[in-house]
Design goal:
Number of domains: 1
Protein name: Single-stranded DNA-binding protein
Order of helices and strands: EEEEHEE
Distance between the termini: 35 Å
Helix content: under 10%
Largest sheet: 5 strands, mixed, barrel
Radius of gyration: 16 Å
CATH class: Mainly Beta
InterPro entries: NA-bd_OB-fold, Primosome_PriB/ssb, ssDNA-bd
Number of strands: 6
Organism: Amedibacterium intestinale
CATH architecture: Beta Barrel
Strand order of the largest sheet: 1-3-4-6-5
Keywords: DNA-binding
GO biological process, one term: DNA replication
Number of helices: 1
CATH superfamily: Nucleic acid-binding proteins
Structural class: mainly beta
């Protein structure tokens, strides 16, 4: 099963975008706290980019601001591509399937 759940803060106010074929989406960076402290006793955070498609994109963009705390249920999607050196690389995207706004900063 390809499923992950994340809780964190929205880094910047997201924008609703549209593909050339009319699909709406938003790319959103969420800062997620790690479950452990580093050797200096500091809990670090990871900034993870999530993609919201179609029916999820607009309500999410309309409902959050920078700093809002959200939970997202996402699946990881991978794709292969060739870079400028003709090397095959693997890229990952987190596609949101469900979300909740836990603390609204509006």
């Amino acid at each position: 099963m390809n499923l992950s759940v994340f809780v964190g803060n929205v880094k910047e106010k997201p924008e609703l975008m549209e593909t050339p074929n009319g699909k709406f989406y938003a790319k959103v960076v969420i800062s997620v706290e790690r479950a452990f402290q580093n050797s200096e006793g500091i809990t670090e955070r990871d900034d993870i980019e999530f993609i919201f498609w179609n029916g999820l994109a607009k309500p999410f963009v309309d409902g959050v601001e920078k700093g809002s705390i959200v939970s997202v249920k996402a699946r990881v999607q991978s794709r292969k591509y060739k870079n400028t050196k003709k090397e095959t690389k693997l890229d990952y995207e987190f596609i949101v399937e469900k979300y909740s706004i836990l603390v609204d900063k509006k």
